[in-house]
Amino acid sequence: MMKTAISVLQEMMIKAGEVPEYECIAQCGPQHQATFEYRCKSSGLTVTARARSKKEAKQEAAKRMLAEMFARGDPVPPPYARPPEPPGLADDPVEPAQTRALPSTVSGGAAASGVAVDARSYVALLKELCEQYQAGCPAYDVVGDAGPPHCRLFTVAVKLGGHERRAAASTKKAAKQLAAEHLYKYLRLHLARLTEDFVEEDALNRAHERAMERYVEEKASTFRPPLDQKISEYHLGLLRHLDEDKVASGREAMAAMAEDEDPVSALQTLCAKLGLNVASENVGGLSVVRVKPSAPEVAVAAEGPKEAHAAALRYVRRVLAHRPADDTLIGRKATGSFTNMPLIPIKSDVLN
């Protein structure tokens, strides 16, 4: 098995009575896509290298140190006996071979770099730039899809006002990043004086913080049913939060309701008897009424507030009208006082 650059450099320096020094001197980019920079000092030389992980950055620094030593005339064993790379390439982060994408093309026919994605998220940078300077919201669209199934090439266009840039890559995500990169760099170049106070690191940190907030909100709102709840009982989830006294009180209030009573006030009255909360909101032009607590949560939507409250009222009535064969509450066994309680007549319109 071929020795790593770190091992070869270590052996060479030990023979010379020295030990190479490694130090992580920088870390940039968001946490999910960070880039690390390592510095290596040995035999009077100093080199730096960047990569997606500390291990890769350290290996790359050792390779560059061996290349510098070879250029100086030191005996370096193959395959590390080669001259240093040009400065432009040496400063690019090293990508693992499996993450390299097909060469991407941009509008204008020029070929882009073989490395699919930069350490920075240009989609996030472009969005932050547009928000900070109130330039509107960039719009992305997949405008091309070519190639065989095992080697697809997607083309994504990004538009902002009268400007449009396109890029192609083996994945839609990579093509979107490249298109955003071209438009972002164009705006920074031609609006340099206006955007001189735009700090990329701060913008990326803001984007990362917002993404984490959305992640926490989505994670907190994930419904996890009780382990003892059957799927067939989801429509009766309200009963899991109601004791026997509240159910009896709710059935009495339901039996006393007039047929033509306003659904908004009727729902509020009935839920107050049951100890439930009613909340209403407008979502996408629809009125949504939520009844809490419940497992799962109850949300009813309709065109208007009155219709939504009426639908929620019908649901609560049907739940209260439900009587299992053994007359037990969902998820709980009924006590003697509940099973011996006389049944309260329910109006015929309850199940309508």
Structural class: alpha+beta
What is the distance, rounded to the nearest whole angstrom, between the alpha carbons of the first and last residues?
78 Å
CATH architecture classification of one domain = 2-Layer Sandwich
Along the chain, the helix and strand elements come as HEEEHHHEEEHHHHEEEHH
Under CATH at level 1, the class of one domain stands as Alpha Beta
Specify the number of helices: 10
Indicate the low-confidence ranges by residue numbers: 88-118, 330-352
Give me the side-by-side strand order of the main sheet: 1-2-3
The amount of beta strand, in percent, is: 15-25%
Number of strands: 9
Shape: elongated
| Main sheet characteristics | 3 strands, antiparallel
Q: Which fold name is given in CATH as the topology of one domain?
A: Double Stranded RNA Binding Domain
Global Rg: 33 Å
Proportion of helical residues: 25-40%
Round the mean pLDDT to the nearest integer and report it: 76
Give structural notes.
By secondary structure, this protein is an alpha+beta fold. The chain has ten helices and nine strands. It has helices spanning 5-15, 54-72, 87-90, 122-132, 172-190, 200-220, 244-255, 263-274, 305-321, 336-339; strands spanning 21-28, 35-42, 45-51, 139-146, 153-160, 163-169, 277-283, 286-292, 298-302. The strands form three sheets. It has a three-stranded antiparallel β-sheet, covered by helices on one side. A three-stranded antiparallel β-sheet has the order 4-5-6, covered by helices on one side. The radius of gyration is 33 Å and the shape is elongated. Pfam families: dsrm. Keywords: RNA-binding. Residues 75-87 have a biased composition (Pro residues). Residues 72-100 are annotated as: Disordered.
